[in-house]
Amino acid sequence: MSSRSVREYIESIQGHYKFAKKTVKTVLLDNFVLVTGLDRKHAIKLLSRDLTSLRDRSGRPCKYEPKVYLPHIKTLWFAMEQIGAKKMKAALPLWLPYYSDDSVTDEIKANLLKMSHSTIDRFIKLIRIQSKQKGLSTTRPGNFLSHRIPIKPLDWRVDRPGFVEADTVAHCGDNIMGEYANSVNLVDIDST
User: Fold this and answer.
1) Would you state the pLDDT for residue 145?
2) 8 A C-beta contact, residue 124 and residue 73
3) Using a CB cutoff of 8 Å and minimum separation of 24, what contacts does 94-103 make?
4) pTM (2 decimals)?
């Protein structure tokens, strides 16, 4: 139920509620709680006080309109290879002088620089929701062999070449069905 509907409902029964006997108040309150889904104590407060003290809480006004800033943040975020919001905030002064778009103005660039990393992170969450891209994985848990292969953890203080990290990459695009190429990626820890 919207806040406007709740307000109209309060206006319609408040006069009856204030001057009713206890048994009638109980019935009115039970119906009000059932219809609105509000907590009983909160409903009592709403029905007992003056409606002029109730105000519509629309929240803080939006400083950065998503319609204006979301396309620019999306373009920059993908150009920066989807880095985190804190790193993006730090990289924006370096990227914005070279960013050119038909709809970008100096005011938008200045506001992009003023944005906090939390605001950028909220925009990035919107972008992730819109794109709904999840990485594809062709690897499965290998519990069958994991306890049979002795693996010694490395202490990462390697001072000579020969110790490597390996990873497999499936070149399958956006669908893992059918045939595609696989490659093994090896990186030497010492020489990288």
Assistant:
1) 66
2) yes
3) 99/72, 99/75, 101/71, 101/72, 101/75, 103/71, 103/72
4) 0.46
What is the C-alpha to C-alpha distance for residues 168 and 83, in angstroms, rounded to an integer? 23
Q: State the number of CA atoms in the 13 A half-sphere of 29 facing the CB.
A: 19
Helix %, strand %, coil % for the chain, to 5? 50, 10, 40
Count CB atoms within 10 A of the CB of residue 103.
8
CA angle 149, 151, 153 (to 5 degrees): 170
Residues in Cβ contact with 42 at an 8 Å cutoff, skipping those fewer than 6 apart: none
Q: Give phi and psi for 185, each to the nearest 5.
A: -105, 115
Residue whose entry in the numeric block shows the structure tokens 């029905």 = 47
Q: Where are the domains of the chain?
A: 3-53, 66-131, 143-188
Cα distances from 113 to residues 55, 62, 83, 84, 90, in angstroms, run 35, 17, 16, 16, 9
Tokens 């009983």 sit at which residue?
Answer: 40
Report strand pairing: 164-171 vs 181-188: antiparallel
Look at the block and give the residue holding tokens 């407060």: 45
Q: How far apart are CA 72 and CA 83, in angstroms?
A: 15
pLDDT tens digits, residue range 59-104? 778 888 888 999 999 999 999 988 999 999 999 999 999 988 888 8
pLDDT at 153 over 80: no
